[in-house]
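Office hours follow-up: a student asked to see two folded examples consecutively, so here they are.
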Amino acid sequence: MTITTRRVEYPADGLTMIGHLALPAGDDRRPAVLIGPEGTGLNDFQRSRADALARLGYVALAFDINGGRWFTDPEEMLAHVTPLLADPDRMRGIGHAALDVLRAEPRTDPDRIAAVGYGTGGAIALELGRDGVNLRAIGTVNAPTTGRPGEAARIRCPVWAGVGSEDPIMPPAQRDAFTAEMQTAGVDWRLVVYGGALHAFHHPPVDQTVLPGVGHHPRHARRAWRDIVGLLAECLPLTHSAMSPGLPMS
């Protein structure tokens, strides 16, 4: 399917964010997906996720969290991301700003939006849910984070989370806390643990120094992408005529 893409700039978190909007062919309204990046920010691979979803027939916005920066230094990235992850209101502000851009797109059906995120972007997607945003689904990879007590009860859609079994950043205790929060809140939740996978297993290797416990797992990366596409097919279905094969994400 032919798609069109464009760069979108918008303010959030005191920064000028630079997102990537991908549109399927046609001029009709479509279900839409907000896609959050890892803490390193947006690169071509992360933008390609929006392109892949547009080829499936969705309007897709890969949103920014770093003001257009792609961090190559892990320590610099952590210095930026760690305080953000500790501040739900900041995360919600970033998420709402991106959501406003997506809703303003004429091709977007504002009543049919899902949020998908990786790492920090996944935490932001969850905070939108905890803030009561009307989403059809929330999907996260390597981001089963917990929120402020009681706020998960505001989540109004199914939540899917994927995590590597060997992820030191999201160890079993963190996963247990996440599932307990979802269960207590009565959320329709699922957690998939990918055996042998590290943190950021979904992202191909890049030419930069990585943190311990981070590594690519191509097989599980493809499986996680299929699981996310399956979540969208279940909760945000497209008409048969709108669907077109997407790209495998590895």
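And the second, which I mentioned at the end of office hours:
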Amino acid sequence: MARRPVAWVGAIVLLVEAVGIAMLNWFLGLVVNKQDMSLAGLDPHAMSVSTWIAGGLFGLYLALCAFIMLRAAILDRAPGRFGRLLLISAAVVHALLGAFSVGLVGWPAFAFMMVVLGLIVLTLVAYDRKPDEVADAPRTGTGAAGGGAPENGAPQPA
């Protein structure tokens, strides 16, 4: 199965995107700072600093998602609960950004967002538990209807 290469490519793309987002916000913060732009009376310095902080946090978020996918590719194992939640949130973010980018940036940006979304979702689905792993898992109940014999062979109380 091609789950390891998909996770590798997804991790690389997310890492490149993290650096790109951080650099874009750094540049936008510089533009706001140099031009003394103000929005509704806000301090331009506060706007540029908040842009840098937001870009750094979003870049770290994407880098953490890339690390989760890279770890899944190296270990060839599904991410844990936190990693899955993080990747699911990244998939939702990319779906929303893809929808917004059609009107604001254009179809190439939409296509990039959908490729990243596909890589994340494919990684999540490919590392899902396999049916044979579910079948090998220990059973804790006595059957679907509750009427099966216990595993140790002892009779059930009436």
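Two things to take away from it. The radius of gyration is 23 Å. The mean pLDDT is 85.
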